[in-house]
């Protein structure tokens, strides 16, 4: 339909351009976050070294210092606090700015000992025969069940021992932890909008509802007008009384009439 082709193409192009810009900004944001660095060690023979967030794997030992963001979902092993406590800000997760307390399990602290520096704490943990067993990755932010195996001992873990990715460590010099969920398996990523329906504002919902109502009304009006026009044109007596409409003279032009009807219909909708 020539009369609406140009505005329709313009609207589609603008919408495609908007989506492309949003995708590019999301790509830049993801790349910036993945290229952040943190202190990490992977085996007993290497010390702490700077590692990109995207290279952190489950089972590594990660040190997050004060006012730094957590690169993965970490089980807290110890911290600079004498009781293994750490305070985190979860504004990136739930929008709350008040600090939340996280801590190492009480039974594990005596095994690690008290250390002033994070390097000494890392070396102490590396000497242990320990591993973590936990539930499969899920999107529940306030639920975690796991077990810390240290030799023959089993220590229970819960959400108080877990610091989620995106949290900000505050009020403590450093925190030592072990990633259990990284990348797309972290809880914040599993709650991302890519796997959820896009959140709509009340205005967007109202516009969508009103658009459906207007479309339905216009469709019913078009059907009614089409039926009325067909009934009028099939009644020869009424047509003869209204010679000023010149309907009979154009009655044989079926193709032209169909085109005119289509143009008017689409313009009306």
Q: Could you describe the 3D structure shown?
A:
Helix content is 40%, strand content 22%. It is of the alpha+beta class. The longest helix is centred in the N-terminal third of the chain and has 33 residues, at 2-34. It is elongated, with a radius of gyration of 33 Å.
Q: Could you give a quick summary of the protein structure above?
A:
The chain is of the alpha+beta class.
The best one-word shape is elongated
Quaternary structure annotation? single chain
> Could you report the average pLDDT, rounded to the nearest whole number?
84
As a percent range, the share of strand residues is 15-25%
What's the SSE pattern? HEEEEEHEHHEEEEEEHHHH
Low-confidence stretches: none
- In terms of structural class, how would the helical and strand content be classed? alpha+beta
The count of helical stretches stands at 8
- Distance between the amino and carboxyl termini: 12 Å
Q: Sheet bearing the most strands, described?
A: 6 strands, antiparallel
Specify the helix fraction band: 25-40%
Please state the CA-atom Rg, rounded to the nearest Å.
33 Å
List its salient traits:
alpha+beta, six-stranded antiparallel beta sheet, three-stranded antiparallel beta sheet, 40% helix, 12 strands
What's the topology here?
Layout lengths: L1 H33 L2 E5 L7 E4 L8 E5 L7 E7 L5 E5 L1 H4 L4 E5 L5 H4 L5 H9 L3 E5 L11 E5 L2 E5 L4 E2 L4 E3 L3 E8 L5 H4 L11 H32 L2 H6 L12 H15 L1
Antiparallel strand pairs: 1-2, 1-3, 3-12, 4-10, 4-12, 5-6, 5-11, 7-8, 8-9
């Amino acid at each position: 339909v020539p009369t609406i082709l140009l505005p329709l193409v313009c609207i589609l192009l603008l919408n495609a351009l908007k989506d492309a810009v949003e995708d590019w900004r999301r790509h830049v944001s993801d790349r910036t976050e993945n290229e952040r660095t943190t202190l990490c060690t992977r085996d007993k023979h290497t010390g702490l070294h700077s590692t990109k967030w995207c290279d952190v794997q489950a089972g590594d030992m990660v040190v997050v210092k004060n006012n730094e963001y957590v690169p993965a979902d970490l089980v807290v092993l110890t911290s600079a606090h004498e009781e293994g406590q750490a305070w985190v800000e979860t504004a990136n997760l739930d929008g709350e700015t008040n600090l939340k307390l996280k801590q190492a399990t009480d039974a594990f602290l005596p095994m690690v000992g008290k250390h002033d520096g994070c390097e000494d704490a890392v070396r102490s943990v590396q000497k242990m025969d320990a591993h973590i067993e936990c539930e499969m990755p899920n999107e529940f932010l306030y639920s975690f069940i796991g077990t810390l195996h240290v030799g023959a001992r089993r220590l229970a873990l819960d959400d108080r021992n877990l610091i989620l990715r995106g949290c900000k460590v505050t009020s403590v010099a450093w925190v030592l932890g072990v990633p259990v969920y990284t990348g797309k398996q972290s809880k914040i990523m599993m709650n991302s909008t890519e796997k959820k329906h896009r959140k709509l504002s009340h205005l967007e919902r109202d516009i969508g509802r009103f658009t459906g109502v207007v479309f339905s009304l216009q469709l019913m009006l078009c059907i009614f007008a089409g039926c009325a026009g067909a009934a009028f044109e099939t009644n020869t007596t009424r047509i003869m009384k209204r010679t000023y409409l010149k309907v009979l003279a154009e009655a044989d032009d079926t193709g032209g009439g169909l085109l005119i009807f289509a143009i008017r219909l689409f313009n009306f909708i």
